[in-house]
Amino acid sequence: MPEVPSPFVYWAQTESQVTLKVDLTDVKNPGVDLHEKKLKFVANGQGARGPDSYAFTLDFHSGIDPEESNFKVIDRQVDFILRKKSSGWWPRLTSQPQKPAWLKIDFDKWKSQDADGDEDEGTGIDGEGKRDITKDYPNMYDKLYKEECGYRQDSMPTTYESVGTAMKFVQLLQFLEVMHPLFGYTKGGFMTPLLQVGARAIILFCMIESEPRMQTKPVVFYLFVVWSSVEIVRYPYYLTQLFKTEFSFLTWLRYTIWMPLYPLGFLCEGIIILRNIPYFEETNRFTVAMPNEWNFAFHFPSAMRIYLLLLCLPGMYIMMSHMNRVRYQKLSKTNIKRKYN
C-alpha cells in the first residue's frame, strides 16, 4: 500500500498559542483529530505531489487546549490556531528533537504577529503596530533560524526570489555556446560547453526551481556568486577576441580564475543535490514508478546519490583537466607572441 504524502506545514508561536499553516489548496473532506499532545490531519487537496490525499501527525512539545483551539479551511491553505495549555515559550513544536522535512518555520508570522497572535488586529500591545516577537526572544529566533536555514543572514533567503528569473534567462541564453560550434560560428567542439551548460541547467531548473524549499537556502546565494564571478571575466574576454584585441591581464585572469571557482561551484552544486535528496524522496518529483505503460521505473533520488558517489569527483577532474590544458596552451602562446614581438 503506497505511503500517504505529507503536505508542507508552517508553524509559528507566541507565549499563548501556536499557529499552523497547512500548504494545501482546494481542500476537500478534511479530517482533524486534535488532542492535548497530538494532532492528526488528513485531507484531499492540491499539494507538492499534485492532487492527492495528504496526511500528517504532530506530537506536540507541550500541551494545548483542544476546546479553545480551532481551524479553518480557505482556498490557499488550512489554518490552525492552537491555544497553549500553559503560557510559555516552546523550544520546538514537536516532542522529538528530529524535525520532519515537511515541517517548516513560518518566519513571516514571527515578524508580524502581535502578542495575542490575532492577525485581524491592526495594533499590538502598545497600540503602535504589530509587535516584533523576534526582539522579545532573539536567541530563540536565531536558534530556530539556524536549524532551518544554516545560519541567519537576512538577504540570503531572498536570493532566488530576487534574481532567480534573471538567472534562468541567462542560463537559457548560454545554450547558444553549444549551438555556435555546431553551426561553425566558433572554433572548438560542442561537448565541453554542453556538459558545463547542461549541468548548470539541471542544478538551476531541476534542483532549485522545482523545489521551493531549496530556494531559500544560503548555498543558492553562494552558487550564484560563483557562477556570476566566472562569467564576469569570461564574457569580457570573448568581446576582446571579437575585436582582435589582447589584454594580457584579462587573458591570464580568464584562464586562471577557474582554479578556485570551479571547485567551489562543484561543492555548492553537490550540497544542493545532497540537501535535495530527502525533498525528492518525499515528493517523488521526476520519479517514474511502476506499473506504467512503458514498463519502466526511474528513482530520481537514487540517481542523485549515484552522481554524488560515483560521478561528481570524476566530472570535476575531467572539467578541470580540460581547463588546465587550455590554460597551458593559451598562456604559452601568449608568452611566445611576447617573445617575438
Number of H/I helices: 10
Give the structural class: alpha+beta
Helix content: 40-55%
Detail the poorly predicted runs: 112-130
Please tell me how large the radius of gyration is: 26 Å
Distance between the termini: 77 Å
User: What is the number of strand segments?
Assistant: 8
Biggest beta sheet attributes: 5 strands, mixed
Return the average pLDDT rounded to an integer. Answer: 83
Strand-residue proportion: 15-25%
Dominant shape: elongated
Order of helices and strands: EEEEEEEEHHHHHHHHHH
| Strands ordered across the widest β-sheet | 6-7-2-1-8
In short:
The chain has helices at 107-112, 133-136, 138-149, 159-173, 176-182, 191-209, 218-242, 248-254, 258-283, 300-340; strands spanning 9-13, 17-22, 25-34, 38-47, 50-59, 64-73, 78-84, 103-105. The chain has 341 residues and is of the alpha+beta class. The strands form two sheets. The protein has a five-stranded mixed β-sheet. It has a three-stranded antiparallel β-sheet with strand order 3-4-5, with no helix packed on it.
Describe it for me?
With 341 residues, this protein is α+β, with helices and mostly antiparallel strands. Helix content is 48%, strand content 18%. It contains 10 helices and 8 strands. The strands form 2 sheets. The protein has a 5-stranded mixed sheet. Strands 3-4-5 form a 3-stranded antiparallel sheet, with no helix packed on it. Helix 7 crosses helix 9 and helix 9 packs antiparallel against helix 10. The protein is elongated, with a radius of gyration of 26 Å. About 6% of the residues have low confidence.
